[in-house]
Design goal:
Layout: H1 3-8, H2 14-44, H3 57-84, H4 89-113, H5 124-135, H6 151-174, H7 181-213
Helix pairs in contact: 2-7, 3-4, 3-7, 4-6, 6-7
Length: 217
């Protein structure tokens, strides 16, 4: 085993990381199923979700590139670790290609969707209009404005941003001759677990986008 493989070897971490990854993705699947059931039940009761806002073509292209880059990162990382025990060879090369792509897309995602993903409370004018409509006994309820992301999409977007910065930062720091072997191993662990958070958050965000399109809230 050469020095590069020994550095990238999971070792004892495989006994903890892979089962944890399985539980994390299982929890994400259960959360998506519960959210879909709740959205379907709300539609049956007549509580329709706001209509989805229309995306520009470049937003769709940007999101598609991000999804493909994250898919490449997830497959090359989790499959290589699960089957080979470490990330090396062609799997590492494919992982680096996805990493470079995602590193270029991440700031563009932040600039595009930071504002739509902010959690905002209703303004006082909106509250006064709602109370005035109730006082006047108006039966007509205005249609909700189109929304770009649901609360789940906003939450997972910020998880993607934070974990993505940690994932990129740990590897960038590892490229500089600033740390010893022990600190490099700590950075690798941080990179590994933040990558798990990024993969799970990305999966939930992709689901939230699809659920929003189908009116599941």
């Amino acid at each position: 085993m050469n020095s590069l493989d020994s550095l990238l070897l999971v070792g004892d971490q495989a006994n903890h990381f892979l089962p944890l990854a399985g539980w994390v993705f299982l929890g994400a699947g259960i959360a998506m199923a519960l959210h879909a059931c709740g959205g379907w039940a709300a539609r049956r009761r007549g509580l329709a979700a706001p209509p989805p806002a229309r995306w520009h073509w470049w937003e769709r292209l940007l999101y598609a590139v991000a999804v493909l880059a994250l898919l490449d990162l997830s497959v090359t990382a989790f499959y290589a670790v699960a089957v080979h025990g470490h990330l090396g060879g062609w799997w590492l090369l494919g992982h680096m290609v996805g990493a470079g792509t995602f590193l270029g897309v991440l700031p563009l995602l932040a600039l595009t969707w930071c504002r739509p993903c902010c959690f905002e409370l209703p303004s006082r004018s909106d509250q006064r209009q709602a109370s005035g409509a109730q006082d006047e006994g108006q039966a007509a309820v205005p249609l909700p404005a189109p929304r770009r992301f649901s609360w789940l999409g906003k939450l997972t977007f910020w998880l993607m941003m934070i974990s993505g910065i940690v994932v990129a930062g740990t590897m960038l720091l590892s490229m500089f001759p600033l740390f010893g072997t022990h600190m490099l191993e700590e950075l690798l662990d941080l990179h590994r677990y933040s990558g798990l958070v990024l993969a799970a958050a990305s999966l939930l965000h992709l689901y939230s986008v699809c659920a929003n399109r189908f009116g599941l809230g």
